[in-house]
Amino acid sequence: MASITLQDLTRVYPPAVPALTGVSFEVGDGSFVVLLGPSGCGKSTALRLVAGLELPDRGRILLGRRDVTTLPPGERNLAMVFQSYALYPHLTVRENLLFPLRMRRVPHAERGPRLARVAELLGLGELLDRAPAQLSGGQRQRVALGRALVREPEAFLLDEPLSNLDAALRGELRSELLGLHRRLGATMLYVTHDQVEALTMADRIVVLREGRLEQQGTPTELYDQPATTFVARFIGTPPMNLLPLDAALPATALVASGAPPGAARCGLRPEDLRLGAEGLEAEVTLVERLGSETLVHLRLGAQLLVVRAAGQAAFTHGAHVRVTAARERRHWFDAAGQRLR
Ligand SMILES: Nc1ncnc2c1ncn2[C@@H]1O[C@H](COP(=O)(O)OP(=O)(O)O)[C@@H](O)[C@H]1O
Ligand SMILES: [Mg+2]
Question: Cα separation of 128 and 337, whole Å?
Answer without folding.
Answer: 53
